[in-house]
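Chain A, query sequence.
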Amino acid sequence: MSRRAAMQMSRFLVRPTRQRLFSTNISKIVVSSNNASNISGPRFTNSGILEVRYWSSIAGEEKQMQAPKLENSGNENATDQGGNAVVSSYWGVAPPKISKEDGSPWRWNCFRPWETYKADTSIDVKKHHEANAFMDKFAYWTVQTLKYPTYLFFQRRHMCHAMLLETVAAVPGMVGGMLLHLKSLRRFEHTGGWIKALLEEAENERMHLMTFLELSQPKWYERALVFAVQGVFFNAYFIAYVISPKLAHRIVGYLEEEAVNSYTEFLIDLENGVVENKPAPAIAIDYWRLPPDSTLKDVVTVIRADEAHHRDLNHFASDIQCQGHELKEYPAPLGYH
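Chain A, predicted structure.
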């Protein structure tokens, strides 16, 4: 058989099956008909293993086409092209309807009512961990070196400074919790609740950012700065935590001390009228369970209290390890925002 005859023979054999196996139009027509008998039977089993993938894609599309329509359960974020509310579902399971104590719908998807709390504002804003050991001095002066460029850049623009601060402050808890999680898996051991405590810290810091975003939107160059700072800080902190967790926690402790100082200056400018004392955003009132008539000053006060608690938690974690112990030996202060 010549080469030309062989090519013609192969085209003759492939042409009838090519459209049926690889065309997406055929699969859509079959699925829309909702007739299972049209896509089952000997013609699929006799065509070879290539049709297994075709059958899998048809089955997936058929499930999507036959998914039941769910009633609206209060999800305000999802909308279709016509502007009507659309409920996101997970295999036909609708999200639960959540209401406040007064019966009004819960509007936040980033946190739930059981994740809210009343901040403990009975803190010592001037509390400072004395840097006596070499490691403590290294951590302290590292933070002092890093803080001056930000102060020069933002000066008295407290809102923008706070947003940048929170994009950085939410990183250590996530990195520490992740590495402790992996350590627990490797060693088959408990961690005394420290994974959850650090993840709580990261989530709390993120909620600070979500609150400030309701009051001010960062400019393009501030967003670019966040990209650069977060990229450098995440990798640097990751390496530091792998090398020395006690050093990493000490650095965060000093970072939180500076955060407390920054929010104290923010409060002073609010009291002196340098910054307008706006009404508190709704997300802050719901998250910290603040009175409905709360102001920006009340929000900054509870955020400063959160930072003070993070300060104490990280210095405590570093002290545990500096004394030759492991974090799992001392129960973590869960819920200690």
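Residues 20-78 have pLDDT under 50 and may be disordered. The longest helix spans residues 158-187.
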